[in-house]
Amino acid sequence: MDKAIVLTGGLFDTVHAKTAHGLVRGSERFEIVALIDSVSAGKDAGEVLDGQHRGIPIFTSLREFIASHTEVMVSWCIVGVATKGGVLPEPIKVELTDALNAGIGIVNGLHEPVSEIPELANLAAARGLEIVDIRKPKSFRELNFWSGRIKEVACPKIAVLGTDCALGKRTTARFLNKAMQQAGFKTEMIYTGQTGWMQGAKYGFIFDSTLNDFISGELEAAILDCWENEKPDMMFLEGQSGLRNPSGPCGAEFILSADAQGVILQHNPTRLKFKSLEQYPMDIPALEDEVELIERYGVKVIAVTLNTYLVSLEEARQFQRTYEEKLGIPVVLPLEDGVDRLIPLLKKMIVN
Amino acid sequence: MDKAIVLTGGLFDTVHAKTAHGLVRGSERFEIVALIDSVSAGKDAGEVLDGQHRGIPIFTSLREFIASHTEVMVSWCIVGVATKGGVLPEPIKVELTDALNAGIGIVNGLHEPVSEIPELANLAAARGLEIVDIRKPKSFRELNFWSGRIKEVACPKIAVLGTDCALGKRTTARFLNKAMQQAGFKTEMIYTGQTGWMQGAKYGFIFDSTLNDFISGELEAAILDCWENEKPDMMFLEGQSGLRNPSGPCGAEFILSADAQGVILQHNPTRLKFKSLEQYPMDIPALEDEVELIERYGVKVIAVTLNTYLVSLEEARQFQRTYEEKLGIPVVLPLEDGVDRLIPLLKKMIVN
C-alpha cells in the first residue's frame, strides 16, 4: 500500500473533514502515516476523531513532518476536506505546493481540479509527479444510461440512507460490510463518494460529479459490474445527502434505480438543522416521518443507525429505546456498539 | 427571428420527438419553416402533432427542401429528437452534413456534442458555420452551489411536475405562463431542458447535463436571476422526469431547493408503464398515490393536468370527473381546453 498524508487545513475537528475521518478509520488503498492540521497538531488523529489511538500523528505543516521523517517514503498527499461547492481552501493549496516540491503526488476529491491550477500543474509536470483529481467529471461517452438490467442482480442490496448529509452513511455501510464479511458472508460495498474510492472500495462511482442524466445509469452499472465479477451474497449501497435536504435532495435513486431490497437509515437525534444550513427556515424531518417517506417509495426501513455527534451516550441510549418502541425495528449505535446486532436480520434477507 | 428547420429522423410521430413538438407549438427564439422527417413527409407538422394546421411542411430530406426553396434564408438546423442516452441517430447525422454543406448552422440538444464529431466540426470550421451544443456541460467554475437565497424570492413559484417523463410538463408550463400573461399578470417560466431554451425561455438551465452536486444551485440561481431582473408576479418551473421514474427519479429539487408554493401535476391516465420501460416490472404509480407522495414533501398539489395521448376525448372526460371527485382539486385538459380554468386559483396565490 502507498503511504499517504492527509491535509485538512485546520478543519479536522469539524464535519467538513469527513474524507479525512474516513481515511483515519481505515483504508485499503492508502496507508495513512500522518495528518496535517494546524488546529489539532500535536495530537493523534484517532484520539481527536473518537478517542481511539491509531498511531497517526498530526503535524502543523507538511514541512514539519518532512523535517522529522526524512526516512519515510510518502507517495501521496490527500486533500481530506469536503468544502461547500468543492473549492480548494487556500491553506491547503500552500501545503500542496510544498508536497510537490518534496516529490509527493496529490490525490484530490474536491470539485476544483488541482490539475487545472497552473502553478501546481506546472510544478507537478516539472517534477514528473501525478495529480489525481477523483471528481473530474466523466464525459458523456464514458457514462452509462440506466437500462433496467438491475433486475439481473440476484442478491439483496441494502441502501444506507440518511436524514442529512455528513452523518456517517459511508462509515455505517463500511461497518456493515465488514461485520457481514467477518460473519462469513461475501458482501460488497458500492461507493458513491470520493472517500469510498480513497478507502479502497472497488465498485462505485462519484455521485456529485456525474452529469445528472447518468446518475441512475452509473449506479446501476457499478452494481452490475460488482454482481458479474463477485457474485456476492449482499451489497451495501453508500447513500448521499438526504431525501429532503434542500441543498440537494437525494435518495430515491438508491431505492428505485438501484432496486434496493431494504434501507438502513442513519440519523442524528439532536441535529435539528441540515448541515451548513443552520439559518435556513427548514428543519431536518423527524425520524418517523422520514421512515414513512422512504417506505412510500416501496421499500422497508429495516434498521436505524444513530450518529451520536454532540449527543451524550446516556441521551443516545434514551433515543435508541424510544425509536425502537416507536418504529418496531432495531436501532443501533455503530461507533459505540458496532453493527453485529443487525447480522441476523441481514442474514435472513439472503436467500440461498 | 432566425429561420430554422427541425430534423426528427423519422421519429416526429413518437414521444421521442418532444423537442420538435415543442418547437412546432411555438418558439420565440426560432421561426420554424419546415421539418425533415421521412415517415411524416408530405403532411403539415401541426396537423400530425394535434390536427391543427400550422403552415410547417414536412419534407423527406433537407435536399428536397432546399431544391424547392432556393429563396428562403435558413440559419439553423435543429436536432428535434431526445434519444435514450442522448446519442445522435445516424440518419440525422447525414442530414446535418447536408445542412453544413448548404451553409446552415446546427443547434443540438442531445448529450452527444455535434461539435466533437470530427467530420461535422471540420466541415463547420471550413464553412465558417456555428455548431451550438446546448447540453455541453458547464465546468465546475461556471456552476452555482445552492445557498438558501431562494427565500429572497417574494413571488409564488409553481412547479409543474409529472408522473413520468415526456408527458407535456414543459407544454403545460408554457400554457400556464401564457394564460396568466394574457390575464394581465407578469409571469415567467423557468426552463430546465433544451427545448425550453430553444423556445426562447430566458431563465433556466439544462438539468440533464449539469453535474449532480450543482443541480439545486443552478435551479436556485436561475430563479434568483429571474426574480432580480423581472420581479414577476409568479414563476412556473418546468419539472423533469417523475418522482418515481426508476431511470432517473426527480422532482424533490423543485419542491425543496426551488421552494415551490404549489405543484401542478401532469399525468396520462392510461399510460401504465414508464416511457421506454414497457418491459420493466414497475408501473407508473396511481395519481392519488403520487399526490400523497408530493404532499409529504410539504407542498400542495393545486391542480392536475391530463396528457391525453392515446386517450379518447370521452375517456379523458371520464378520468377528469373521477379524479376531480377523488382529489377535490381542478383537473384540466390543457391541449383540449387550455388552462384558463386555473387562472382564479393562481391569482389567489399572488399576494399584493
Describe the structure.
The structure is a homodimer. The first copy, chain A, has 13 helices and 13 strands. Chain A is an alpha/beta fold and about 350 residues long. In chain A, the strands form two sheets. Chain A has a seven-stranded parallel beta sheet, with helices on both faces. In chain A, strands 3-2-1-4-5-6 form a six-stranded parallel beta sheet, with helices on both faces. In chain A, helix 7 links the parallel strand 8 (about 185-190) and strand 9 (about 205). The longest helix of chain A has 16 residues, at about 215-230. The radius of gyration of chain A is 20 Å and the shape is globular. The two termini of chain A are about 35 Å apart.
Number of helices of chain A: 13
Mean pLDDT of chain A: 96
Q: Work out the helicity level of chain A.
A: 25-40%
Q: State the end-to-end distance of chain A.
A: 36 Å
Assembly level:
homodimer
CA-based shape of chain A: globular
Detail the poorly predicted runs of chain A: none
Structural class of chain A: alpha/beta
Main beta sheet of chain A: strand number and arrangement? 7 strands, parallel
Largest interface: A-B, 45 and 46 residues
The count of DSSP E runs of length 2 or more, i.e. the number of strands of chain A, is: 13
Approximate strand percentage of chain A: 15-25%
**Gyration radius of chain A, rounded:** 20 Å
Secondary-structure element string of chain A: EHEHEHEHEHEEHEHEHEHEHEHEHH
